[in-house]
Amino acid sequence: MTTLTAPPTATAAATRIPQVNNRIGIRQTMSTSLTMAYRGILKIKHKPEQLFDVTIQPILFTALFTYIFGGAIAGNVHDYLPILIPGILVQTVVLTSVVTGTQLREDMDKGVFDRFKSLPIARVSALAGALIADMVRYGIATVLTVVVGICLGYRPGGGALGVLAAAVVIVLCSFAISWIWALVGVTGKSAASVQGISMMVMFPLTFMSGAFALVSTMPGWMQAINHANPVYYMVNACRELMNGNVYGSNLAWSLLGSLVVIAIFAPLTVKAYMRRA
């Protein structure tokens, strides 16, 4: 008995096994990073309590600080609003950037990033997506703070263009600062420790930056420290933009400082993240 073997068909001959390639291009990396950013926004949708710090805090703090410190610092609420609103805008958004490191640490502790490692995506996409999604939170905090200020009687002398420029500067600077907290989140031991360290650093920098009272009324040694405080330049830049649409040296220092922070901390964060991811 003879066994006949069927000749290979043309379809089988044409089918080729794709080559395995570990390299992921920049275009695909950007695409997966945006997908991860969308995931971060969906997390807000399913857990709206994550928005408390960018919704309740701007409303509560702006109203409280206006009526508590307005009379004591500027004599009345009306004269205090041009000082307070740009300052509390910076304070709100900068403190919101701390959440970046905390959420990264929580995702790593829960094993979410271990799941991402099994997906055919660039490893850095999860990190980049989280940072991009947080920019939405900064935008929400910025809009709410300005709206509350206008409701309380604040009328920005710089007009809509000055307010918009200040909002863009704040979001960009906070994005730069979030790289610092992302590094703390990646290298920290727990989400609680990351939040504790971040707040311990940011609260003194924010409160002595002149966000709530003019720096000229502070002791000389504190004024000298403020010249090395990045939040000080952010507050002054936003105050000049919102109150007079002025593009001065404070704005230049804020943007230059942001670029320096990104240049230093972005590679360090990515390197630390890749070592653990």
TrEMBL record:
One of its GO terms (cellular component) is ATP-binding cassette (ABC) transporter complex. The chain crosses the membrane at residues 51-74, 80-100, 160-184, 196-215, 251-270. PROSITE patterns: ABC_TM2 (PS51012). It comes from the Bacteria. InterPro entries: ABC2_TM (IPR013525), ABC2_TM_bact-type (IPR047817), ABC_2_transport (IPR000412), Nod_factor_ABC_transporter (IPR051784). Residues 49-276 form the ABC transmembrane type-2 domain. It is a multi-pass membrane protein. It is found in: Cell membrane; Membrane. Keywords: Antibiotic resistance, Cell membrane, Membrane, Transmembrane, Transmembrane helix, Transport. GO terms for biological process: response to antibiotic. Its main location: membrane. One of its GO terms (molecular function) is ABC-type transporter activity. Belongs to the ABC-2 integral membrane protein family. PANTHER family: NODULATION PROTEIN J (PTHR43229). This is Transport permease protein. It comes from Nocardia bhagyanarayanae.
